[in-house]
Amino acid sequence: MWRLIIKYAVFLFAILSLLKFIEFQFFSYKITLGLYLGIIATLFLFAGFLISYVFSLKINHSGTSSNLITIDENKLAEFSPREQQVLNLLCHGYTNKKIASCLNISTNTVKTHLSKLFEKLGVNNRTQALSQAKLLNIIS
């Protein structure tokens, strides 16, 4: 931890020293205002690229399969394929009418599938069903 703190302290000291040197050059009339602003803008541009590169490396390394939700296929197999489709559309926020039109079935059939889903999940409504499905790793 101390090595990281010292590394950042040295880096910030170097950047601050460079900025102060450029400021001194500007106020001693050795460089113009346009060149001064151009140098500052370029430094911040490269700092932005460096920071985004470092953070993208951290995201790529931390985005391994351990952070991804794996669907439990055994629990999912307890549901019929049509119930799985209804659950998938349900988790996207579709209404009964929209689910029926997507699956080319009647709204009464959707209600039947939902009641079977609710029964298998041990819940009473859509919100509880989605919450329980996420807890059981049936949906991601």
Q: Can you offer a commentary on this structure?
A:
The chain is mainly α and 140 residues long. 74% of the residues lie in helices and 0% in strands. The longest helix has 30 residues, at 33-62. The chain starts with a helix and ends in a 5-residue tail after the last helix. The relative contact order is 0.08.
Helix content: over 70%
C-alpha end-to-end distance = 36 Å
Mean pLDDT: 85
Order of helices and strands: HHHHHHH
Strand content: under 5%
CATH homologous superfamily grouping of the largest domain:
Winged helix-like DNA-binding domain superfamily/Winged helix DNA-binding domain
Quaternary organisation: single chain
| CATH hierarchy, class of the largest domain | Mainly Alpha
- The gross shape turns out to be elongated
How many individual domains? 2
Number of DSSP strands?
0
Fill in the CATH topology of the largest domain. Arc Repressor Mutant, subunit A
The largest pleated sheet is described as: none
Structural class: mainly alpha
What CATH architecture label of the largest domain applies? Orthogonal Bundle
Instruction: Report the total helices.
Output: 7
Low-pLDDT stretches: none
Radius of gyration: 29 Å
